């Protein structure tokens, strides 16, 4: 930590005892499943990652381990770099003009920024769900079939049908749309669209799914459905989710990382982060003192 | 001179009325209370009330002054001159007019002419003074009445807003009326043409041979099809050239080019749109035509220097910036989220463009295409110079053709008698052209509008 951060900490330093903590805990304990007891193998490993947009540095020396088949949540106030960091994992920052990433990010031990890595293949292994539901202006079926088609995952028409069906089932959308697969995906409700986007991501059988504030454009009921889905998906996928909502992080994640001003403040098991964080800034943010 | 005086008087009237309204509203403002409208609205309201009646009087005079002067002159003329009638009377009237305006006439004016001219001049001066006085009087009356109504609760702001709205409506009506006027004149003249030639012969005839009216009697043959075919062929060639090039330019500029390249390339492409079409025309005639003919020689094809191919290719080049800048706007309207969604699934950039961006932009691109087609159909200068002006039904694009626009030019240049079918056919052709572009524009607008709704 440098001086700048010490200052920020001072600014937000609470002098009295923490309030609101019990409320938060009650929300969490009522909805979340039992957290993992066993440590899981590491799937994605980031070391000293820096991101620059032009001359402006957005992320400073972030190192983190993402465990397999668990949900890791990135929290922090707006502009703290959590989305930027997430977009490093599937190299979506490459599409932004003037961006530069330094450091190492390993997927199963291989550096994804190495010259020999094929970005197309990487993005097939690390899927992404965006902040706003962004179905293509095509039918529901075509939306899900898009990925398998471009990657040649289905050789026969029947295979494609099967992939579409299982993906929609895994995304919990099958029963709602099975009778109208050929209607436009843009005609669905916001929550359904977001689950369609999740189905679209699942259809290419990724190993890791990145979610960039997937519920920020949804109402509470649709949010609850998507959260339920995320909880189910972690049986099979490694999930990294960026969220503004601390309750959401508490509800769906097993590990939480707190970002502030481009730095990783603290990272650890979600339970511990929300009940007994080491850093004052985490505590302040979680209890709603800033951000 | 007179109009300058009137304009000055009107400006003074407006300024004075505004001032009166403004200060009166301050006077009537209750102590400590508030006016409904701010003083500048009261000022504007009084100015409008003063200006409108004055303008009405002036407008009426402008409308009736000619008829009034004529009636006055006729009353001055000796009865034998009045009885002449026809062109002699008209000539006498115009001589008198010239004497009255001080322009002078050829030869010695007859005594009655001088007298009438003198009288007319006096009449006009008097009438002008009267009209200006009447305008000033009604303006002052309007001002007075408007001022009297000023009260704290008077809704001057609403009145002014209403007038502003009428003013805006009036302006847009001008454009609509002009269109209606053009269509009406096209229609009436075209109908006159159809009294000479039956519409069936015109629309379905395959021979175009109007013969010049000076050559002799006989109306000739007016088959539209050879011209329509030439138009369609050249427009098709133009679109074949411009659509792929324009679209790919737009894709490159929006998806691939870095900002500094984009900033350099885009203006250069748009310079193409600023080149006058006549310049394209002689570019086609002098450079492209002979070049194509030379290539034809090399490969053993008979391509003429002035042909549908030459005109079509050059017209296509002219339309490239039109297509590329319209498509550019449309492609940029496709949300970035679409692109990211596709890239995030591991699609390559060209897959993303082909499978997501272009399909999403397709309705807009079709709209742009149709607008470009209607431009190609209406284009004149390039085809006049480079298409060869040969109105025969020919399938080979290497042969010269003629188009609807070229034929209109041919029929209306030189000595024309607007009562002959040779000239009147131009209006029927113009009407055909107008209907074609109208339909294309309506379809294009319809498609573009549906596209806009998609992302809102």
TrEMBL record, chain B:
InterPro entries with a match to the protein in the record: MetI-like (IPR000515), MetI-like_sf (IPR035906), Phosphate_PstC (IPR011864), PstC_N (IPR022182)
Keywords in alphabetical order: Cell inner membrane, Cell membrane, Membrane, Phosphate transport, Transmembrane, Transmembrane helix, Transport
GO cellular-component term (any): plasma membrane
Database matches in Pfam families: BPD_transp_1, DUF3708
Principal location: membrane
Protein's cellular compartments: Cell inner membrane; Cell membrane
Record field: transmembrane: 43-64, 126-146, 166-184, 228-251, 271-293, 305-326, 356-377, 424-448
Protein name: Phosphate transport system permease protein
Organism: Chelativorans sp. (strain BNC1)
């Amino acid at each position: 930590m440098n001086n700048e951060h010490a200052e920020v900490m001072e600014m937000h330093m609470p002098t009295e005892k923490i309030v609101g903590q019990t409320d938060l805990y009650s929300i969490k304990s009522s909805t979340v499943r039992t957290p993992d007891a066993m440590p899981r193998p590491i799937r994605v490993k980031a070391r000293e990652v820096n991101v620059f947009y032009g001359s402006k540095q957005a992320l400073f020396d972030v190192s983190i381990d993402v465990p397999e088949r668990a949900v890791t949540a990135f929290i922090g106030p707006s502009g703290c770099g959590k989305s930027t960091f997430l977009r490093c994992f599937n190299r979506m920052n490459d599409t932004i003009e003037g961006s530069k990433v330094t450091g190492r990010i390993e997927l199963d031990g291989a550096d994804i920024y190495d010259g020999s890595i094929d970005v197309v293949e990487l993005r097939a292994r690390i899927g992404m769900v965006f902040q706003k539901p962004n179905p293509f202006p095509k039918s529901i079926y075509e939306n899900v079939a898009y990925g398998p088609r471009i990657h040649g995952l289905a050789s026969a028409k029947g295979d494609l049908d099967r992939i579409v069906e299982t993906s929609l089932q895994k995304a919990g959308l099958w029963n709602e749309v099975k009778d109208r697969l050929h209607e436009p995906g843009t005609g669905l409700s916001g929550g359904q669209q977001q689950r369609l986007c999740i189905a679209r991501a699942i259809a290419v059988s990724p190993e890791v799914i990145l979610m960039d504030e997937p519920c920020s454009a949804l109402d509470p009921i649709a949010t609850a459905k998507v959260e339920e889905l995320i909880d189910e998906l972690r049986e099979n996928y490694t999930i990294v989710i960026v969220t503004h909502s601390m309750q959401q992080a508490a509800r769906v994640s097993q590990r939480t990382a707190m970002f502030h001003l481009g730095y990783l403040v603290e990272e650890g098991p979600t339970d511990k982060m929300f009940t007994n964080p080491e850093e004052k800034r985490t505590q302040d943010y979680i209890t709603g003192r800033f951000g | 001179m007179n109009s300058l005086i009137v304009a000055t008087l009107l400006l003074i009237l407006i300024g004075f009325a505004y001032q009166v309204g403004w200060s009166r509203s301050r006077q009537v403002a209750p102590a400590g209370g508030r006016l409904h409208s701010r003083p500048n609205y009261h000022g504007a309201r009084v100015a409008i009330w003063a200006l409108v009646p004055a303008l009405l009087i002036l407008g009426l005079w402008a409308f009736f002054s000619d008829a009034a002067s004529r009636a006055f002159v006729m009353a001055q003329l000796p009865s034998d001159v009045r009885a002449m009638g026809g062109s002699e009377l008209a000539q006498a009237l115009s001589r008198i007019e010239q004497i009255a305006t001080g322009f002078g006439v050829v030869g010695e004016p007859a005594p009655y002419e001088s007298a009438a001219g003198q009288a007319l001049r006096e009449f006009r001066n008097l009438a002008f003074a009267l009209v200006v006085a009447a305008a000033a009087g009604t303006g002052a009356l309007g001002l007075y009445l408007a001022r009297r109504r000023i009260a704290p609760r008077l809704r001057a702001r609403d009145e002014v807003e209403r007038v502003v709205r009428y003013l805006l409506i009036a302006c847009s009506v001008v454009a609509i009326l002009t269109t209606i006027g053009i269509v009406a004149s096209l229609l009436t003249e075209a109908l006159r043409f159809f009294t000479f030639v039956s519409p069936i012969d015109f629309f379905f005839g395959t021979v175009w041979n109007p013969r010049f009216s000076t050559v002799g009697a006989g109306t000739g043959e007016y088959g539209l099809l050879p011209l329509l075919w030439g138009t369609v062929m050249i427009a098709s060639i133009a679109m074949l050239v411009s659509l792929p090039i324009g679209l790919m330019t737009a894709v490159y500029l929006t998806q691939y080019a870095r900002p500094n390249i984009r900033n350099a390339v885009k203006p250069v492409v748009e310079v193409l749109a600023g080149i006058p079409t006549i310049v394209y025309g002689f570019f086609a005639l002098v450079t492209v035509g002979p070049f194509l003919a030379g290539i034809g020689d090399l490969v053993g094809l008979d391509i003429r220097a002035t042909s549908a191919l030459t005109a079509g290719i050059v017209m296509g080049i002219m339309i490239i910036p039109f297509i590329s800048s319209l498509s550019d706007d449309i492609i940029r309207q496709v949300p970035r989220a679409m692109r990211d969604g596709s890239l995030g699934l591991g699609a390559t950039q060209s897959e993303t463009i082909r499978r997501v961006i272009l399909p999403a932009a397709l309705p807009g691109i079709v709209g742009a295409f149709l607008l470009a087609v209607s431009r190609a159909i209406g284009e004149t200068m390039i085809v006049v110079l480079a298409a060869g002006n040969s109105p025969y039904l020919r399938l080979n694009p290497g042969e010269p053709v003629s188009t609807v626009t070229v034929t209109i030019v041919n029929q209306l240049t030189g000595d024309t008698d607007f009562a002959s079918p040779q000239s009147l056919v131009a209006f029927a052709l113009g009407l055909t052209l107008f209907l074609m572009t109208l339909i294309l524009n309506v379809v294009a607008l319809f498609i573009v509008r549906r596209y806009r709704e998609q992302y809102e």
